[in-house]
Automatic annotation (TrEMBL), chain A:
Claim: Transmembrane is one of the keywords in the record: yes
Organism of derivation: Streptomyces muensis
Superkingdom of origin: Bacteria
Signal peptide: none
Keyword field: Membrane, Transmembrane, Transmembrane helix
Positions of transmembrane segments: 32-52, 91-116, 137-159, 189-209, 216-238, 305-326
This protein's record includes keyword Transmembrane: yes
Name assigned to this protein: ABC transporter permease
Automatic annotation (TrEMBL), chain B:
Pfam families: ABC_tran
Top-level taxon of the source organism: Bacteria
Name of the molecule in the record: ABC transporter ATP-binding protein
One annotated GO molecular function: ATP hydrolysis activity
Keywords per UniProt: ATP-binding, Nucleotide-binding, Transport
Domain annotation ABC transporter: ranges: 6-231
Length: 334, 295
């Protein structure tokens, strides 16, 4: 082995074997995190697949057994939720929940175990005094988890979408879950994955700032929670709204409603005086109609992609700051 | 032998917002092949200096050059063992050596690393977290030497070892360094630990260089003198003097022949270091450029 390597020039050996070495180190050092992630993805995938197959079948069987589904519109009481549908709903919730929780788990792990603990115990410095620059070390710390996270999250997202595309009638019958609701919205597109990557970036930067595992873990989770709250709040305004108007009563409630109210004869939007059907009251307030600003379901992808773009941009910026911070501190020529 | 292993020029490192100076205006030079002892009290800046040399910290002032380049550019050629011997606790001894092999492609020498581990009778399958402090030190040294460094930076390397293991590891280290011409820089606040092993001394105090140069030259530049309390020591530089009764004992740097009223002996390394530590205001002495001029 030694005899063979000495025949090559050191530079050539470095370039051909370096990445393999770091990849090996990453997988070996974070073996338990890797197993945990694989387990989490397996549980999520299992739950979604079960809901997609036997879960949905059982829910339908229960529905038909109650004598529903033969008339349109369905009889009153058919949206009464039975045990089979509850079970189905729980399994969907587990799958979607893992997609929703993964970014926070990632942030906590990245802040605590991936970087924070290594800076605290000095094992990061141990790596930097092998033939690995701090920048390459950080690149490996980001790239390997990012690849595994993306793969797992996209797999779960695809399964969730598969489920979503087929269980429409069941949802309609039971009147549960809408496309725009938080976890569902994120689990059906690119957002869950991009938030997981943001969690990774935030965790890494928090650890570089704190240099200790526990404070970094806390900071990472708090910052990610703040970011998701802010982005969740501005989500409806990331794409132009559509407006429905109607005379005498409110237009139908379809899709993600952002604003609603009454219209005067001049077309001005005012707060609903809540006259209900009192014509005198309506005339007094000069109310001639009602409006709803909303996103139809066709806005799913535009909303999804704009927010994904923002999340990935914030993540990229965070990574850039992390690299600059590390370089400034260690004085490393890459 | 004429190449420079480490050269510091007006090197300074401050920490925190207040820029508390751990190192301040340090200049010294160390030639390749030397075995250098970095000595000083706790908080003198020994660890900071070694971290700077290892490219783990960026200086706030001045420069440090290692093996003719910036420390970060010669990462492959130097090894560093930090004071608390950080190792991944979840790895086994064998995996830790594999870690060294994977992260030092083209340099790693399995035989060297495995020999050091084998001398400590460590089991390859034992996890690092189950090892004693001394055993961890051994694995950390194996990781450092397996890299075949040209410059070996050791921060308080022997602190956790029992006297026998210390003796044995020091012998291994010195034999390895002599065989490969490795430059070794070793810090300690226990002077006795370094005596006999080192040929170069760097004494730090309060972040500054107090003494720097080949050990023999530094010792030769000082005399431990005893004489009557009223005798004058002019024009010699007095590092430290103590008077008990009518007798004065002093460590001096003679500027010429000492008068007949003084009894002079050569100081030991420990006496030299202790006198300088007890007298923080004594002027610094650098002899590390002299040899270069002579070569």
């Amino acid at each position: 082995m030694t005899a063979v390597t000495t025949l090559d020039t050191p530079a050539a050996v470095t370039s051909s074997r370096g990445p393999r070495g770091l990849l090996w180190a990453m997988l070996r050092l974070h073996r338990w995190a890797l197993w945990f992630w694989l387990l989490l993805v397996a549980v999520g995938a299992g739950a979604l697949l079960w809901a997609y197959g036997p879960g949905a079948d059982a829910a339908w069987a229960e529905y038909h057994k109650a004598g529903c589904g033969s008339t349109t519109p369905p009889d009153l009481g058919c949206d009464l939720i039975g045990p089979a549908y509850t079970r189905y709903d729980t399994f969907v919730g587990v799958g979607a929940g893992i997609l929703g929780l993964a970014p926070f788990l990632t942030a906590a792990w990245a802040g605590g175990a991936l970087i924070g603990r290594e800076l605290e115990s000095g094992t990061a410095q141990l790596a930097w005094t092998q033939s690995v620059s701090p920048a390459r070390w950080l690149a490996a710390k980001l790239a390997v988890p990012a690849a595994l996270l993306t793969t797992g999250m996209l797999l779960l997202t695809l399964l969730h979408r598969l489920l979503w595309s087929t269980d429409g009638p069941l949802r309609a019958a039971m009147g549960s879950r809408s496309w725009y609701q938080g976890t569902t919205f994120e689990a059906n597109g690119t957002l869950a994955t991009s938030y997981a990557l943001l969690g990774l970036a935030v965790g890494v930067l928090a650890a570089l700032l704190q240099r200790r595992a526990l404070p970094a873990l806390g900071l990472a989770v708090v910052v990610l929670a703040l970011l998701t709250t802010v982005l969740g709040t501005v989500r409806p305004y990331l794409w132009p709204l559509e407006t429905l108007t109607n005379k005498h009563e409110y237009p139908a409630y379809i899709g993600m409603v952002v604003d609603e109210g009454a219209l005067t004869s001049t077309g001005a939007r005012v707060a609903d005086p809540i006259c209900v059907d009192n014509t005198k009251c309506l005339a007094e307030h000069d109310i001639v109609g009602f409006y709803r600003d909303y996103h139809p379901s066709s806005h799913f992808w535009p909303l999804q992609l704009v927010e994904t773009g923002i999340v990935l941009a914030v993540a990229a910026l965070t990574v850039l700051v992390a690299f600059r911070l590390l370089n400034r501190r260690t004085g490393a020529a890459v | 032998m004429t190449e420079t292993a480490i050269e510091a020029a007006a090197l300074g490192k401050g920490f925190g917002r207040r820029r508390k100076q751990a190192l301040d205006d340090c200049s010294f030079r160390l030639l390749t092949g030397s075995v250098c002892a970095v000595v000083g009290p706790n908080g003198a800046g020994k660890s900071t200096l070694l971290s700077l040399a290892a490219g783990l910290l960026r200086p706030t002032d001045g420069t440090i050059t290692v093996l003719g380049a910036a420390p970060a550019a010669v990462r492959e050629r130097l090894a560093y063992v930090a004071q608390d011997k950080p190792l991944h606790p979840q790895l086994t001894v064998a995996d830790t050596l594999r870690y060294g092999r994977e992260l030092n492609p083209g340099r790693w020498d399995d035989q060297v690393a495995e020999r050091i581990v084998a001398e400590g009778e460590l089991e390859a399958g034992a996890r690092i977290r189950t090892l004693s402090g001394g055993q961890r030190t051994r694995v950390a040294l194996a990781l450092a030497l397996g890299k075949r460094p040209e410059l070996l930076l050791l921060d308080e390397p022997m602190a956790d070892l029992d006297p026998l293991a210390r003796h044995q590891l020091m012998a291994t280290l010195m034999a390895d360094a002599a065989e490969h011409g490795t430059t070794v820089v070793m810090s300690s606040h226990v002077v006795a630990e370094l005596d006999g092993a080192c040929d170069h001394l760097l004494l730090l105090g309060a972040g500054r260089v107090r003494l720097s140069g080949p050990l023999d030259d530094l010792l030769a530049a000082h005399r431990l003198v005893t004489g009557r309390a009223d005798a004058s020591l002019d024009p010699h530089t007095v590092v430290e003097s103590r008077t008990t009764g009518r007798q004065t004992t002093a460590l001096v740097r003679p500027e010429g022949p000492l008068g007949p009223s003084w009894q002079a002996t050569a100081p030991t390394l420990e006496e030299l270091v202790l006198a300088h530590l007890r007298a923080p205001e004594a002027p610094a002495l650098r002899l590390d450029d002299v040899r270069e001029a002579a070569v």
